[in-house]
Design a protein that fits this description.
CATH architecture: 3-Layer(aba) Sandwich
Distance between the termini: 48 Å
CATH superfamily: Uracil-DNA glycosylase-like domain
Structural class: alpha/beta
Radius of gyration: 16 Å
Order of helices and strands: HEEHHEEEHEHHEEHH
Number of domains: 1
Strand content: 15-25%
Low-confidence stretches: 1-5
């Protein structure tokens, strides 16, 4: 017999009155897709319960999976630096991911990130929708293609629409940009500096919109 933990995420969503805290506690037991089997824990969003800005990334990385907090690894440190340069106050930001469990494959002693599938994104979407419903951000920053596919659809291209103020149905406005990990994958320090500044420019669009 299946338990509530094995049900779809929709069945686990608590009443809105419990806020983000109740949502986070419920997500800890989510088994809506197979990713939980190889993950250390659910990594839920963090930040002010009614932050004017929500930044949505892809999924937890190795460090996030171990620590249980989003954006605490190398990409998170780069995002912090970009936010500081853009003038985006972290106290006004709620950060989360489209997928709440770390998807990886082994390579020697390392755990290598794998892109979540469409089914995995869909399985996790009720949690993201719950966060949007409770935080009610004025602007959502969409970090990378997985977040864009989850929130807008597979036809959306971040590279073509980045830095634009986009009209969406899940918030008053959204701005898409690359995931900070894409900046880290730059070929050399010169390219990384250019890509970092582009990310900062995109974040400044968010700053001006709130």
């Amino acid at each position: 017999m299946s338990s509530a933990a094995d049900a779809g995420a929709e069945a686990l969503i608590p009443p809105r009155r419990g806020g983000v805290k109740a949502l986070r506690e419920a997500a800890a037991g989510c088994r809506a897709c197979p990713l939980w089997r190889n993950a250390t824990q659910t990594v839920f969003g963090a930040g002010r319960a009614r932050a004017p800005v929500m930044l949505v990334g892809e999924q937890p990385g190795d460090r996030e999976d171990r620590d249980g907090r989003p954006f605490v690894g190398p990409a998170g440190h780069l995002l912090d630096a970009a936010m500081e340069k853009a003038g985006l106050d972290p106290d006004r930001v709620y950060v989360t991911n489209a997928v709440k469990h770390f998807k990886w494959k082994p390579r020697g002693k390392r755990r290598i990130h794998q892109r979540p599938s469409k089914l995995e994104m869909e399985a996790c979407k009720p949690w993201l929708e719950g966060e949007l419903d409770r935080v009610r951000p004025e602007v959502v920053g969409i970090l990378g293609s997985v977040a864009a596919e989850s929130l807008i659809g597979g036809d959306f291209r971040v590279t073509k629409r980045r830095g634009e103020l986009i009209e969406v149905n899940f918030a008053p406005a959204a701005v898409a940009t690359v995931h900070p990990s894409a900046v880290l994958r730059s070929r050399d320090s010169e390219e990384r500096a250019v890509e970092f500044d582009k990310l900062v420019d995109d974040l400044r669009v968010i700053v001006r919109a709130v």
